[in-house]
Amino acid sequence: MGGFGRLQKFSYVMNTLTQGAAAFFIYALVFLEKHPVYECQDTDDSWFECDREHFCASNSKMIWRVDWQNINSIHNFIEQLNFYCKPDYMMGLVGAFFLLGIVIGCSTLTRLGDVYGRKPIYILGLFMHLSFMFGILISRNPYVDYFLLFTFGMSITARYYVGYTYNVEMQPKSHYVLVSTTMFLFESVVYLFITFYFRFISRRWQYLQIPNVLLTLMGIGFLFSMPESPRFLISRHRFREAREVFTWIG
Asked: Which residues constitute the domain of residue 64?
């Protein structure tokens, strides 16, 4: 790809931000599955901190509430899906369907990136991610969420794995390590921001997804203005198109 010129630098920055957008949801999952602090009413009408086992038993008549004044109580999936007294495996299925989507995506979408091109599959993954985000933000049905998380897992393989390949192939070999390192550093910063957000900014997870959605939309606009990876075109013996890309880059 020649030197590390203005186009390569622009592509490197934009791809890093686009791929890292999903980190605002992925690294927040541990907080989205966390139970809040509960309070139970005592016989003298006072409230004391209690575990959900105290009031979730089928024969329990205990009055309870969520202590939203406690900093450890987050407005998350537990509240959104009314999982306060649901068995633990139902929350466990959140991660299971997400991982299942990754497994299926690795055997389908990533292969399509080698057949139809990096760019269209990368863009497909971004649109899948947007659809997932709009759905997961409003859904109150756990079974809808399971399906959405499955599609999210599949989108990860398109935007991370195929997208990462696209990002690397648009750079000179001398900068491969820089591309990889920057992506991981960006995600580390996002994780630190998430912990800061829940501690000092807000305990509502929906607002945290604003940069996620905005960066994804920005990435879609960016990709529509970019060419296909010339390395992919050469590997498919589409030499005329590859020369046109090199000319455009030059």
From this structure: 38-73
Classify residue 1: in a domain, yes or no: no
Q: Are residues 16 and 49 in the same domain?
A: no
Long-range (24+ apart) CB contacts under 8 A made by 230-239 are 230/1, 230/169, 231/1, 231/169, 232/114, 232/117, 232/118, 232/169
* Tens digits of pLDDT across the chain (250 residues): 556 778 888 999 999 999 999 999 999 999 999 999 999 999 899 999 999 998 998 888 899 999 999 999 999 999 999 999 999 999 999 999 999 999 999 999 999 999 999 999 999 999 999 999 999 999 999 999 999 999 999 999 999 999 999 999 988 888 888 888 999 999 999 999 999 999 999 999 999 999 999 999 999 999 999 999 999 999 999 999 999 988 887 6
Predicted model pTM: 0.92
In terms of domains, do 146 and 199 share one?
yes
The DSSP bridge pattern shows strands 47-50 and 64-66 to be unpaired
